[in-house]
Every structure is written in C-alpha cells, then in structure tokens.
Amino acid sequence: MKVREVPPGARAPLLSLLLLADDSSAEVRRYIGRGRLFVVDDPAGEALPEHQALALALLLPGPDRTSAELRSIAVAEPAQRRGYGRRLIGHILQLLRAEGVERLEVATATCDLRAITFYLRLGFRPSRIERDYFSPERGYPDGIVDDGIPLRDRIWLDLGV
C-alpha cells in the first residue's frame, strides 16, 4: 500500500471523501487546509474517480510536540472493510514514532458505534466526552440519527504511540 502526502493547495478534489467522515461541510472546509493529509490511492495506481483516493487521514499537531490529533479518516465505500484504514493508521503511527510523538488522539460521535469499535480494536482508549458538541452552530443539522442514536456528543480516544 502506497501512502502519499497531499499539500494544502491540492486537497479540494478530496472534499467528497472527507465528507464521508464528517456530517458538517462547514467544519470540513475549516480544517481541510490544515495539518498533514495522507492518501492511499488505488493499488493499481489509479485513483477512484469519485473521491480521487481509496482512503485518507488528516493529522493535526497537538498542543505540544508529544501529541497529535487524527482529525479525520475516511475510506471510500467500495474499499471499506479491506484494512485500508487500519494500515493507514499504522503508517501514521510509524511516522509519529520517528518524529518523537508519544500520543495520538481522535474524536468521533458517541453514536458512531462502528467508528468507536474500529478505534478500540486498534488499541485506542476513551479519554473524555464533550457533551452537545454536534450543534447547528458548528454546522451540524438538527435531527441526525445514527443507528437510532441522536448525534449530540463527541468522544475522545487516545493511543500511546
């Protein structure tokens, strides 16, 4: 699997893939140009036309040099459940170790049980919850429900690198 880093000025074609991981286009537009964006292209070397990539992960620096935040990770629907997300995070963990980072954080909706399970399987552990994070003020429409659970709170998980 080949991973490449995409510079901020070349990220617009990846917007639709980022929106698979975040229900607020306003929020995605706020962070799309920040941090480091890692992309996995099609193994045959050709990107998927709809998303321009199989998977991506946006990594932000933490408040100090010893931590980082996995701000977004998305895998194109035809490529889901094939290990791309797990391997992409593995690649990022190797980079972070080499850079001296000690902790990786990630946040997701408490109603997104599939994402929480994914992170727990990778060894992440819950660290805190932000109540009422997903609000209209942040660009999230009222009434979003995932598996019968309202989208309201955000859970943070972390992993020692």
Question: What would you note in describing this structure?
Answer:
This protein has 161 residues and is α+β, with helices and mostly antiparallel strands. The protein has one domain: Gcn5-related N-acetyltransferase (GNAT) (Aminopeptidase, 3-Layer(aba) Sandwich), CATH 3.40.630. The protein is built from four helices and nine strands; from the N terminus they run βααβββαβαββββ. The radius of gyration is 15 Å and the shape is globular.
Quick summary:
The protein is an alpha+beta fold and 161 residues long. The chain is built from 4 helices and 9 strands; from the N terminus they run βααβββαβαββββ.
**Beta strands, count:** 9
Q: How many domains, as an integer?
A: 1
CATH architecture type:
3-Layer(aba) Sandwich
Average pLDDT figure: 91
**CATH class, please?**
Alpha Beta
Structural class, judged by helices and strands? alpha+beta
Name the overall outline.
globular
| CATH topology name | Aminopeptidase
Helix content: 10-25%
> Which ranges are low-confidence, i.e. pLDDT below 50, for 5 or more consecutive residues?
none
Q: What is the H/E order?
A: EHHEEEHEHEEEE
Descriptive key words:
alpha+beta, Aminopeptidase, two-stranded antiparallel sheet, 4 helices, 9 strands, globular
Helices and strands, with pairings:
Blueprint: E1 3-6, H1 15-18, H2 25-31, E2 36-40, E3 55-61, E4 67-75, H3 84-98, E5 103-109, H4 113-121, E6 125-130, E7 145-146, E8 149-150, E9 154-160
Parallel strand pairs: 4-5
Antiparallel strand pairs: 1-2, 2-3, 3-4, 5-9, 6-9, 7-8
